[in-house]
Amino acid sequence: MNINLTLIGQAIAFAIFVWFCVKYVWPPITAAMEARQKKIADGLSAADRASLDLELAQEKASKELQQAKEEAAALIDQANKRAAQIVEASKDDARKEGDKLIEQARAEIQQERIQARDALRKEVATLAIAGAEKILETSVDAKAHSEMLDKLAAEL
Amino acid sequence: MAADTPVEYIQHHLTNLTYGKLPEGYERADGTVLQEATWTMAHTGQEASDMGFMAFHVDTLGWSIFMGILFLGLFRMVAKKATTGVPGGLQNVVEMTFEFIQGIIRDGFHGRNPVIAPLALTIFVWIFLMNSLKLIPVDFIPQIAHFLGLEYFKIVPTTDPNGTFGISIGVFLLIIFYSIKVKGAGGFAKELSFTPFNHWALVPFNLVLEILGLLTKPLSLALRLFGNMYAGEVVFILIAILPFWVQWTLNVPWAIFHILVITLQAFIFTTLSVVYLSQAHEDH
To answer: Which residues cross the membrane (chain A) (predicted)?
Structure first.
């Protein structure tokens, strides 16, 4: 319990320890702690930002989805209309074509009938002349009697 | 051991291993008379006290320096490997200590000084480690020292007033240094002269009051720590006198209680040092 030089020795040791602590212990550890604090704060704010971004992205995505749906619906509508138009047009065409074909067939039939009638008429005329010659027993001058013959043929 | 009666046992345990200077013509315990002043180890408590101021307590100095180096070595090791990522176990402990000290500084220190925080850390951890030596049973290390031929051995540096005064004087010098640095020599003198009563006629009275107040700071710091530790140590020694089979009923609760005292005293010393230094930084 005597006060002696130990006191001064202790004070010197204390001073050296404090100096060492100030110089070599305190700064690196507080620096590490502060750096970690900053890292954590940055991480947290990044997470906040990310969740905000996510929200925005979701909103945008749903908006785009909506738009795409609308576009698709419009396209389908258009396609349906177009299809109906095409069907209508092709029906029209087919009808026209059919009418034309029928017309053509009719015309052909008519022509053939006329031809047949003409041929028949000529035949009848010839037959009539031949019959007349037989009756008259003279040749009939076709040229002389052509007027009568034509009249006859027209009457048939 | 040189302890036959309980009183001798207690005195023996409260005597430091002292290396000091004995005067010329001194008659030593073994009867020899010194021809000239000699630096030597004290063989008895009487010799140790006769050495007066020119003596060292080898055990106090040795253990306190050992504890200081343990503290700085451990913390320096952590500082070198300090990672900003996930800290490991030891770094966690160190960082908790740092945050504890930073809390004390935030609450108690209102100036700006990069030295105060590491100073508080040193005071806290060093005193804590020195105090914790107390939890080693009182006879273990002295007995080992006895086998090594050392008559006296007291391992807890804070049960030696030299140990506690050494630290508090360090703090006191810092108080004076920062008072003068912050307020200037004139400002410091003015503060001592004109508080608490701001009148020229009361300057002498103020001076006496303020200087007393100033000197009380290191005194109270050192005596509080010393008193608590010393009293605790005496109780441990008294318990050690009892028959060995009842000792545990007393020294276990006392040791558990001392876990609190050890931390608390280290904390009080640190906090008060910080507060005193904060006052030194305040410019009125």
So the answer is: 6-26
